[in-house]
Design goal:
Blueprint (H helix, E strand, L loop, with lengths): L1 H23 L11 E16 L3 E4 L5 E5 L2 E15 L3 E14 L4 E15 L5 E19 L14 E20 L4 E9 L1 E2 L11 E11 L1
Antiparallel strand pairs: 1-4, 1-11, 2-3, 4-5, 5-6, 6-7, 7-8, 8-9, 8-10, 9-11
C-alpha cells in the first residue's frame, strides 16, 4: 500500500515536471529571408591608377598653349556604412575623396563622390566575398598649372586653368572581407568610378584598390 502510493506520487511529480517544461518552451519563429541582421561600417584608404583624355589648353586669343593628358597614381580616403538584410543583401551609403597630382608643374585633379551602396555578400569560412554598385553623385575639381609655380605673389598671365563640375556617379566594385574578430573585419576592395552624365576630357578614371577596417554590429 505504501509502495503503491509512493510510486503514484513519484510518477505524478515526473509528469507534472515534463508537462510544465513543455509549456515553457517558446515557439520557434522563422525569420523572414530579408530580416534586418545588424549593420557594419568603417574607414578605407585607397590607391589607384587613373587617366583622362588628351585635350588642348587654349589662351585668351584662341591659340593652343599646351596639350595635356592627365594620368598617374591617385590616393584618397573615405568610408561606408551598410545595413544587413537576410543572409546576403546589404544596403547603405559611402563616400570618398581621391586626388591625383600630375605633370612637371604638379597640376591636380580631385574627385569627390558618394551615394547609395547596394551589394551582395557570401560567407566562406572567415572570408566574405562581395560585389555590388554605388549610385550617386560627385564633383570634379581640376587645377592645371601651365608654368612652374612662381616664388612671388605676382599673377602670371595664361598660366593657370581651374575647372569644377558635377556628375552622376556609378561605381561598380568587387572585394572580400576577412573576419579578424567577432566585431572587426579587414577589407580589400577594387572599384571603377564612372561619370555617366557629364563626360569631360579632363575627367580621370581607372581602377582603385581599397584597404580598410570594418566594425560589425551583427
Amino acid at each position: 500500500m505504501k509502495l503503491s502510493l509512493f510510486l503514484s506520487l513519484f510518477f505524478l511529480c515526473i509528469s507534472s515536471t515534463v508537462f510544465s517544461q513543455e509549456n515553457e518552451v517558446e515557439p520557434v519563429i522563422k525569420k523572414h529571408p530579408l530580416a534586418f541582421n545588424g549593420y557594419s561600417g568603417g574607414m578605407q584608404l585607397h590607391i589607384g591608377y587613373v587617366q583622362g583624355q588628351t585635350f588642348n589648353v587654349y589662351g585668351n586669343s584662341g591659340n593652343v598653349i599646351q596639350q595635356i593628358t592627365p594620368k598617374g597614381i591617385t590616393t584618397g580616403i573615405g568610408g561606408s556604412i551598410r545595413f544587413h538584410f537576410g543572409n546576403y543583401w546589404r544596403v547603405g551609403t559611402e563616400g570618398y575623396v581621391s586626388t591625383l597630382t600630375f605633370g612637371e608643374n604638379k597640376s591636380s585633379s580631385r574627385l569627390g563622390w558618394g551615394g547609395l551602396l547596394n551589394d551582395v555578400a557570401f560567407k566562406v569560412g572567415r572570408f566574405i566575398p562581395f560585389f555590388g554598385v554605388t549610385i550617386g553623385g560627385g564633383n570634379a575639381k581640376n587645377l592645371l598649372l601651365l608654368n612652374p609655380t612662381p616664388d612671388d605673389y605676382i599673377v602670371e598671365n595664361e598660366s593657370v586653368s581651374y575647372r569644377s563640375y558635377g556628375f552622376m556617379a556609378v561605381d561598380p566594385f568587387i572585394g572580400v572581407e576577412f573576419k579578424a574578430t567577432r566585431r572587426l573585419n579587414l577589407l580589400l576592395k577594387m572599384d571603377y568610378l564612372m561619370n555617366v552624365t557629364n563626360i569631360q576630357d579632363d575627367f580621370v578614371t581607372g581602377p582603385r584598390l581599397y584597404f580598410g577596417f570594418i566594425f560589425c554590429h551583427l
